Queue: 4 jobs
Job 1
Amino acid sequence: NLENFYAENKIDYVISHTSSDVASKAAIAASRLHRETKTVCIQHCSDVFEDRVFHITEMDAFDYYFTMDSVSEIRFKRYAAVDYVSPCEIFQSPHFLEEVKKHCLKREERRPGEARRILYIPTKLAAVHTRYFNCMVYPILWFLEYQRQLFQFFAKEKDYLFIYKQPILRRTFVEKTVLPVLRDIPNIKIETRPVMDCFSLADAVIMDRPTTAFYEAQMSGLPVLALYPDFIENMIAKEACASFGKSVQSFSTPEEAF
């Protein structure tokens, strides 16, 4: 079994990006039986939200936790002080975002008179058939209606080329619901490459949910605006508001967002 494997092979650390998948659960449980083996979590995504589920999935099962950025480091150190969370030491490991910064040094050449390019990164549709009551994932019907109006707004701004970064998750759903609308709008280009490869195409970045792509965009050196609906205002971490200022803003109606 895993406990014996750890002991026989003198395993010092078990490293994972979460404690919520099946493989991680087994590895972490075995480390609790073999006390000499410590558990380490590497943050798999950054965001600006307050969510107590992080106390369980990201911290409670680990001895050490490495955040991707300084804002998350401050927030998770605050989480670690909560009395019902098991002891967990928090550190920062900014290596991923530093690699993003290096990757974004190159820019595509612009021809004289060429339209400015705006990269639009939509929230991933991770819960098409599920409602998250803490609003970490937007209600799907609300979000699709918001997007429909957003694309109409894009269509009127003919001096700009909008690059729609197609989400990888729920790709089939997006192809059925979103892409048919975009094909009729000439100043919207669909892009399927990784986000890091899209920054070189753009002059600015907008998004409607400040998660990992927001932090990556900040490292790109481009102007960045991340919007979020005001019904999740109480979930925005105070550290994020202090750090990002006007790069993160709320809206109450689609018109206000536009």
Note: The beta strands are 13-16, 38-42, 64-67, 89-92, 116-121, 160-165, 188-191, 204-207, 224-229, 248-251.
Job 2
Amino acid sequence: DGSCGRDGRMGLADLPGASQSLHIAEARFGLVGAASLGLPPPGSGRSAFTVVSFDADTGVRAEVAQGLEPAHFVDRSGRLYLVPFGPRGVVAGGSGLVWVGDGATEEIRAFSPDGGEVARVLLDIDRRPVDGGDVERLRNAYVDRLSEDVARQQLTLLRSMALPKEFPTVDQIKVDRQGNLWVQPWEPFWAEGPQRWLVFDQSGQHLADVEVPEAALPACSRRVLAGCSSLSGILEIGMDYMLVSSPDDLGTPRVVKFRLQR
């Protein structure tokens, strides 16, 4: 995986061992997420990863921040699965900063490439407990939307793992071309209507709430098993536009441009 910055430098990603996912962030130079080595022990947990800056000219790396990968469950055979309703770490970068959140708290922090914390966002989000009705919706979605074999596997796993007591706080974060942080509060896959995003400036001040219509949501949004990653979904946000990755009627990937109304 890689991401090229606007200065033409490249961010690289290494995926050692059996780590799940790695976030690529763009700043003054590439940012590399280094995942933990080795397979986690059986049961539920979260692995840590380190975000480091990388100067392509000098080859110097500097640790920027620590993050947490998605909540996982490892079965007795060593296979790793994501936990339904589980939090996942979020990372996004741009305009010389990298923003990091663990997805389980209301806090997102901004770091400079040398690792100094420069700003902090505290989200005003009402967290809701996971109840029996949510679990039943998940079971029904497995049966309705997945193949018979995959649904049977997921239902078996669901009986084996402990689900979170509360929903996560954050699903995705992005940085627009002006350096503002966009935060999508977590939503269940059965959510309907516009998707809510919160916008903050580089100092952490709240600027606006944005509603993204369902017609503009990328195909990876509101899926049963996995949502959008840091490299999919909304690809770029400008002053008055948004670029979204979405397939056409034949499933061919395409990039669609939508206008932002302020």
Note: Confidence is low (pLDDT under 50) at residues 1-37.
Job 3
Amino acid sequence: NIPKSHNIKFPQGFKADHFLEAQKGLKAMPEHAIIKPDLPIVGKQNIFKLRTDALTEDIFTQTQASSYSGCVELEAFIEGFDVTCFFLLNHGAANIIHLWDELVGTTHKGQIQGLGVSIPSVIQNNTAIHAKIQCIIDTIANEFNHLFAYLAISLRISLEGDITVIELHCDLTGDDIAEQLLPQAYGETYSFFTTITNSLIHKKMAPMPQNTLMPTLIFSQKNNSLCIQKGSAKQNLQYLNNHINNTTQPSRHLHFLKTTT
């Protein structure tokens, strides 16, 4: 088990396929927890933050129905923010290619909803957190030193700077990263798909974009997306927060979760 043997934090939690089993397991957990599909049919759907004594059968059933496996995952909630690190495994070495923030909010019923993505990450200039992330991906590279591959690692970073690994996946990510976020941030001439594909074909590290990064936030909505570029990541986040507060009906109010260190 790589996380345990290398002291890498991962969420405290368990899986359940029956409501009473979930209810019983939550009694041993901290005050707040996350319930989510074990194998989601659609990403970021039917995920809830709740008090460990407040799980209802309706929420359990709704979450369970969104999982291929019929199981739900219940994990201790970690106050903080979500960062994705897209990196290259290069035969034992690990190179960070992109870091971005995954923006989420909660409804008044505790349902977590994806709001969008933002680059640069709020931890872009935090050398201590950078070093911790590099240490984690170096460990992965050392364990899989025969691979030349691009991976994405999802991280939950606490307000104290502690890092918990949520998941590791081998793909080119989602959430409009390749189609919107990176082209808007680096210019339309930057093709993420082409760059990474050529890198994999020729077994050479992908060149970084030549253009200066424009701080960019993509706010995902049901039928379209809003591109926000107000000069800095902090200004983009503030604009989004104001936008949500001014346009969301009280019955569907979204609490914008903390995304700054």
Note: The CA atoms of residues 41 and 167 lie 16 Å apart.
Job 4
Amino acid sequence: RSKVALRMAVLFVGCAVVPLIGLTLLTIGETTAALQEQAQGRLHHDVKAAAMGALERLSLLEETLRLVGASIDGAPRASTPPAVERLGQTLGTAAPSLAYFPIRGPMRAIRGELELPTLTEAQRSHLGNAGQLVVSVTSSAGPAHVLLVRVDVPGGGGTAAAAVNHRALFELDDDQLPPISDLCLIENSRALACSAGAPGDVVRQISSVTLDRDSADSMSGRFLVDHWTIPLKARYGAEPWTAVMMRPEAALLEPLHRFVRT
């Protein structure tokens, strides 16, 4: 209880305990930063993979649609060729509505109801030159897109059309997203489709900003957010789509939090 003993105790605390606490805080901070960096890197890789996968499925839809048009062109109107039925089954839910508009003759409805969208001069030129076009339309359910494919066959030809199911393109209803992840598809600051668990406030936030590579940290402190832009202009004559993936930051840092609590 003497002053010397008190000074020795204070000196022990200052030389042993305080540096240990400082080292612990430094380690936690560096570990948190490393986990966040790794998680952001994985998120960037996963959203790119999801976007490129959707673009591949759109390309497959295009080629299948071209085969549908070539198979039905000139076929009797009384029946649908078996090849067309098989191709329609291959498309699954990616194209809920299919139709063929021949150069000569009336429209052939294959599945659902679909009207040929009104095209601008630039869109008609792109379809004629490139052979495929994605058109943005407005439906009762909200923003939608129609894929048009030029079909060239001897003595005939026309345009095959399909309504695009965004959710099927990105497999939002098939549990194909990485764990604890949600995804939204954005076009011109409007959400085309989102996975079921996407938080509404975050969706509104990412729909109201111009996305760039450094915007993730400013959008939400509760989520890690990253995006990948799908270029559609050159091939499909359409505005680009942006896939935005998000993950709750707390879940990604839970292992570190458990370690700290113990």
Note: Strands lie at 98-102, 108-111, 132-139, 142-151, 158-164, 182-187, 190-194, 223-230, 241-248.
